[in-house]
Structure formats: C-alpha cells, structure tokens
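hiii, so i know i said id send this last week but things got crazy w the move. better late than never?? heres the sequnce for the chain we talked about at the cafe, plus the structure i predicted for it. fair warning i was half asleep when i ran it
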Amino acid sequence: MAIAVRHITHDTPDKETEVTYRHVVKYTGLFGGVQGITTLMNVVRNKVAAVLLGPEGMALVTLYNNAMSLLNQSTNFGISFSAVRHVAELAEHEDDAQTIHYVSVVRTWSVLAALFGVFVTMLLSSQLSQWTFGDHSHATDFLWLAPIVGLLSLTSGEAAILKGLKKLKRVALVSVFATLAVLIVCVPCYVCFGTSGIVPALVLSQIAVLAVHLRYTTRLVPWRTSLRSIAVLAEGVPMVRLGIGFILAGVCGQGAEYLIRTLILHHGTLVDVGLYSTGYQLAVTYAGMVFVAVEADFFPRLSSACSDAVRRTAIINQQTDVCVLLMAPFLTCFIVALPLIVPLLFSGRFVAAIPMATCATLYMFFKSLTLPAAYLPLACGDSAIYMIAEVVYDVCIAIAIPMAYAAWGLVGTGWALGAAGLFDCLFIHIFYRLRYGFRLSPRYGARHALQFLLLLAAIFAAFSADARLQWGVGIGVAAVSCLLPGTVLYRIHRNA
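okay and structure toks below
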C-alpha cells in the first residue's frame, strides 16, 4: 500500500562537524529552558494536588505511578532506547527510505508491547494491590490503570522515533504540549473529585500525552504497522535483543523505587510516603530538568560516534562538564530557597520534607558526573554491561534507603541517596575505564571539586540553628557557585 512520504530533514548541525561546546551548551540550554516551562506547569499541577489531596493523596499518585512504570519497564521491550540507536544511525546516513521502513518496524513492536503490557497488568491487578497496600482494596484501581501501561509503550516508541530522527525542536515542543495537556486534564479531576479523581486523571492524561506525540511524529512519517508480516517482526528482533539489558535495568530501577516506597508505607504511613516522594521530587525530579538534553540530544550524538573511542570520550567529557556547570549552581540556590519554595509549591504540611531534600542534593551532584558516561554501553550496543551497572546501583539504594529510614527517619533517606550517588559515580567510572578505556579529563577536576565543596557548605549552613549563618553563608555560597560557571560558559560561548 502506497503511503505519503515526507522528506526527513535534520535539526542538528552538519554530521561531519566535530562536537563542540557550543552545540552542547545550545541544546542543553534549549531543553533546560523547555524543561523550565514544563516544570512551571507541573508546579501548578502539584500545588493543586497538594492542596486538594494532601500528603496521603500525593502518596497514592506516586504509588500508582511507580507500579505502572515498573510494569511498563517490564513489558516495553526496551524500545524507548534501542530504537533510538538504530533510527539515529539510518538518519545519519540520510537514507530516507530505510529510515521510514524501520520506523514502521518500531511502531509494530510498540503495538505488540502495548498489548502485552495491558494483558500483564490486568492479570496482576489484584496482586499489585496486595504487594502495595497489604490488601486487595485497590485491585479495581489497578485494573482501570492497565491501559496506562499500553499507552506508555506506544508513547515511548513515538518519542524514540523523534529522538532518533534528531528532531530536537519537535522533541522540545512535544514536551511542553504534553505537559500542558496533563495539566488541563488533571486539575479538573482533582478539583471535582478529589482522591476519587486520581485514577481517571492518570488514564486521561496518558491518552492526551500519546495524542500529542502522534500529532508530531505522524507528520514526519505517516502511521504504519505490519503486525501480520513475519519479515517485519523478525527485523525488529535485534532491536528487542538490544533492549533486553535496558528492560532488566529499568525493571530493577523501577522495582527499587516501588520497593522503597512500599517499605516506607509498611513501616510508616501514607504521610511518610508522601513526604519522601515530595522531597525526592524537589531534589531529583525538578533538578533533573538540567539532564533533559542528555537523552534528547546527547544520546543520539554518542550513538553515532560509538565506533570512535577518541570522539566519544570527548563527547562524554564535554557533556559532563556542562552538566556540572549547570547543576551545581542550581543545587546551591535550591538549598537556600527551599524554606521559601516548599510552602509555595506545595503547602505548609510538606515542610517536613525540606531536610530530606537538602541532603538529597548530593545525589544530583554525583549524578551530573555520572549520567553522560552511564549512556556509553547503550550507545555501543553493550546492553549487558548497562544492565550490570544499573542492577548494582538499584540493589544499593533498595537496601540503603529503607535501612536509613528505619534508623534516622526521612532525613536519613536523603543522606542515603547522596551516598548511593557517590557509590554509583565511583563504580561507573572505574568499571567503564576498565571496560571501554574511558576516563574523565583532569582539566575539569579543579572546578568540579570546588563546586562540590560549595555544595557541602550550603548543606551544612541549611542545618544551622542560627538563621543569620544559615542565610548569610547560604546566599554567599550560592553567589560564588553561580559566578564560577557563568564566567566559564561565557568564555566557551564567545570562543566557540
């Protein structure tokens, strides 16, 4: 059957041009700005949820989302990453016919993953309620949430297509409009129905997100699947095989988060789960907007350079440096502002999450040193190594955080996150140096170390009982932390 074919163009610089700091800063800035807009919309949604649902309602939203993410990671065949790599390689060679054909392969397997995910979720709905809440009272909710797992698989397939085609501006627009769609759907559900509106809001919002993705991807490559074609199904097997490591790593990651919150619920209350989730969202999710460009722009670039050890090392080092330069000032300013922004973003009932979020900033600093290198096995098609690294980290946090909560409460979970981030950073860089010959460039070490010391000073000032010391040192440290990368990034931009 004939289909309309639109010529695929590229939003990125010429493929023969060596990766430069200007490119890294440009697209990190682009997606950081976009993520800032989406974060503002999420703030509005979370504010409404915090006021109307309280910590208990926020905990229910988190537990449902964790369970759905775990099931999706278990059933999506790893398409969200493995498809990006192959589509990016075809797009790099500007082979439009082959690219369009492979997109149909990706969509075919996405549909299969969606159907499989829905079936598994419906089958396990009663058991999920038992694992999460200790009874079967929420089995109907999990049953109604089954479509989300399928919708997530379809959405991740469309997102992988956009990233693989290097349509970065479209990826940015999709992010904004998808978040806006979620806001438009969730707020009325929470306002009208309170906690009873959580399940409808989750289902309807995921439908809206998929609709936004399809609006942009089908304009590039019209929708086509070949579920009855054995040849097309066979062609996607290597993609699925590559994604096995990502699947297992994702299952372990989401499983660890699900286990952590479940154990906190079993040893505490829904309020404790809500406060932990709030602290995690503040320190990890919101701060993580700096890393959006790593997946959207960096991973396709790294995949296209996977056969050149020198080039891929340069790409990772440049991206790591920019991540630290952007993340460290954000974290120091974030620590100082926490007492002001928590009541503003949520409500006064969530201030108990501030100490935990303060300590968890250490995790994000170490993640900025780790994340670019962590993509190396996936870019090289070495999914087993990626799986090993992720499983080691997930086992670490699954043990450390519940133990820390039992011993020191919520603040202990923040310190445990920081310790887990340090362990992951050391493990990744030692392991990948032995495996791939990758190493961090020492030319950036001094400014990274200085930013780490400034972050420690901000953390300890935040715990001071003296308000003058807390605010005086905090503001001073934040100013210095912002000034240092500001001068570096200005010089890079001027000389690029």
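btw Residues 303 and 406 are 42 Å apart (CA to CA). thought thatd interest u
miss u guys!!
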